[in-house]
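Field reference: sequence -> structure
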Amino acid sequence: MLRRAFVFLPAVFLLSLTAFAQKPPLLPEQDVKALAQELSGETAMRNLEGIVRNHRQRGSQGFHAAAELVAERARAYGLSDVTILQFPADGKIFYGTQRSRMPWDAEFAELWEMKKEGEQWKPSVLMASYEAVPVSLAEDSESADVTADLVDVGNGTAENDYTGKDVRGKMVLAAAQPGAVQELAVDKFGAAGIISYALNQPQAWRGEDENLIRWGHLESFPKIRTFAFMASLKMARALRERLAHGEQVRLHAVVRAGQHPGSYEIVTGTIPGADPKLKSEEIAFSCHLDHQRPGANDNASGCVTILEVARTLQKLIKEGKLAPPQRTIRFIWPPEIEGTETLLNAKPEFAQRIKAVIHMDMVGGGPVTKAIFHVTRGPMSLPSFVHDVAGAFADFVNRETEKFAKTGSGGYPLISPEGGKEPLRAEFAPYSMGSDHDVYQEGGFRIPAIYLNDWPDRYIHTNFDSAANIDPTKLKRAAFIGAASGYFLSRPEFQSAPDFPGSILLSEAQNMIDSMRRANGLNKDETVSMVRAHYNYMQQVVQSLSTSLGLENVELPGTPPGLPGVQNLPPEKPASGDGLLIFTRNPQPKGPLAVFGYDYFEDHSGKAGIARPKLLDYQGLWGAGEEYAYETLNFVGGKHNAQQIRDAVSAEYGPVPLAMVVEYLQALARIGVLVQQH
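Structure field:
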């Protein structure tokens, strides 16, 4: 192990480290060349075209078919220990904070408009077909054979949406997601089913294409089971206009579908580590295999990209072009969030062995998707240099691909013959939630996770998320960033390279500068608190780096010149009142409290008669309730009092009242997640 001291490098010197731009970062150039030459966007694309044929809902026949396809390819590529793990999912078993959801399958579903001919109503127009467009049937729909009139209930989520309307035994036309409509429309007012025209996630292109059909879902644990069809905005507008003019619209729905006991399935395989001492440690590549058909960018793209990383690394190692990893490299294809939550809780040895994760969720969107590629940092509750490793490789790809786009030549264009030639322009972004990386980095597991993802994507969760919109060049570039990062982390001796500390420190200095820009407009106290929190974060990243390098006497005696407000910070104000409260976390349950199809906090707080904490609905400058709640829990550990936790989450997402943080912490204590010390 190296034993040397270093100090935080001033910004002027750090900027000089851009000399590293003249060669690939962190890895020997021959390794970078080998990866760049072998990785194939076309190979990834062929695998993607296979996966998207399946409607891959949790535990379904389509998911199993996709899992078998991935497992077959992994074996063909030479991975070791390839298996499809199975975990019971019966709606009752808990895996940490995840209540297992029963698998759901659909066999048949059609929605017809009926026309009256004489005294009889007969099928006239086919409005939805599961066989043709599987996304037109909402997930967790139950079998039904219903003929009923249609009633427009607007959004369908408020009591006044139903004022003066008799929906009992009828179908309702609603703008909200079926799961959000279900409690009022079906449970309270007796509707027979739901037709939803829910729009895509908020983005600039929302509602622009009237032909999109968005994936929809009902409640996984409902009081009354029902069915729902998803309609395009074009169809919904036509129906609403007819209903507004007093026309009777009668529909016939036939559904053969439903939940059933079964299992979560998770595909996994490895490239074994070669070091006798380090092979028990693992660097994991993660994605999520489940999604509606076609689900190309979300997330067949992530699945085939880590599969391409597996193929490439295994082939190059076998050919002697890359040295074997010292740590084991593991590849994991689970159902989103709930699969990862299940794996880490049911097999805690996985959580113990995995030292870092490269997670890919939507990494192949071509220009038509309007996607922006992100390399996402970890949460401030988990400082680690691991995220900066991916940032260094992404910056290298940005430079090389921009140079190629401008000049037509370059050392590492990383293009695929069937793909585009545009520069990548990856953004190194602050932490954002929404995929399995949330589970790995949650306070119960604390595994640093590199998150590669596209956002926005105009076709996410719709029938237009197809293979035609995927760019093989993008797949290759995402694979390169992931493969280089994972291979680097699998061989700790690379961390002794002369450019490694400087590259990480340069990245952290830039991160702090970017963070300080956010402080503009805040009052003095909030600005000082934010500066201190980000400086402490940077110190801890440097400490994680020094620990990895085996360094001693690490110093961070000031901060880079040119960062306003960082030098000579006033002393931290002592906490008082509720700010002095300290909480510790119980060992179980582990995992985020809002997971997939189940909200642990909502369920348990409701049973305990606890009012919904205001923090969960708070809208901050850079985050919302879910983010505040996630990080508030992650910062709990017996070391931080409530005031310090409040200051930390405020630095990350924007100022939040202490009272809201305390209210949430105390609610967590009342349901047994936390213990209040004093």
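Note: The domain at 27-77+263-496 is CATH 3.40.630.10 (Aminopeptidase).
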